[in-house]
Amino acid sequence: MENLHRRGLMYVLSSPSGAGKTTITRALLQKNEDLQLSISATTRKRRAGEGQGQDYYFVTPDDFRDMVDNGEMLEHAKVFDNYYGTPRAPVEEALSNGKDVIFDIDWQGTQQLADLAREDLVTVFILPPTRSALEARLRNRSKDTRESESDIRGRMSKAADEMSHYSEYDYVIINKDIEAATAKAQLILDGERLKRHRTLGLSEFVRGLKEGL
């Protein structure tokens, strides 16, 4: 038993802006001590209250390009005129130590992760219950973020393209109620953790059992 250990998994939640992925991500992090957030690097400007290395790694465009060229990114994408990417080293360290890593990324980043490490990857797409509900959430959020009407229209337009990629994901959750959606995301995580290929040393363990019979 002492040689049995679980390899961590990469748990991706994607959705159009306002559909709930960030809220669900935060709830899962609170409930799971062995789950950690993947901190992205970005070229966008830091917003009030955001911390370096806590919310994002804020880097210059030149530094970002160097990280990509040196193979230090698991994935990267351009979103709303800024670049975002996942540094490779902290994710690989977590997986090796049996920790799960949750990602709040879009479909472009998810495709890149799938190309690199499909066996470690579990993907979930969050959909809003209706288009009007999505717009209402964006307008409500804009009160805090101070986004303009044109920003909201831009996000709604982009949402249509993002939602067209739902079929590329392992699971889909329709977020009618945030607590119910979070519970479904937790069930998916629990089930995926139990998959046979994530338990390392299992073949040797079974061989030992057979030899003792």
Structure description:
The chain has helices spanning 21-31, 61-69, 88-96, 107-117, 131-145, 149-163, 178-193, 202-211, and strands at 5-6, 10-14, 35-37, 41-42, 57-58, 73-79, 82-87, 100-104, 121-127, 171-174, 199-200. It is α/β, with parallel strands linked by helices and 213 residues long. The chain has a domain at 5-38 and 98-211: Rossmann fold. It has a 5-stranded parallel sheet with strand order 3-8-2-9-10, with helices on both faces. The radius of gyration is 19 Å and the shape is globular. The relative contact order is 0.21.
Instruction: Tell me the strand percentage band.
Output: 15-25%
The end-to-end distance, rounded to whole angstroms, is 17 Å
Number of helices: 8
**Looking at the structure, what is the overall shape?**
globular
In spatial order, strands of the major sheet run 3-8-2-9-10
User: Would you state the CATH class of the domain at 5-38 and 98-211?
Assistant: Alpha Beta
Radius of gyration: 19 Å
Q: Helical residue percent?
A: 40-55%
Describe the main β-sheet briefly. 5 strands, parallel
According to CATH, the fold-level topology of the domain at 5-38 and 98-211 is Rossmann fold
Order of helices and strands: EEHEEEHEEHEHEHHEHEH
Average pLDDT works out at: 90
Quickly give the CATH architecture of the domain at 5-38 and 98-211. 3-Layer(aba) Sandwich
Quaternary state of this entry equals single chain
> What class do helices, strands and sheet pairing give?
alpha/beta
Q: How many strands appear in the DSSP assignment? A: 11
CATH superfamily of the domain at 5-38 and 98-211: P-loop containing nucleotide triphosphate hydrolases
Low-confidence stretches: none
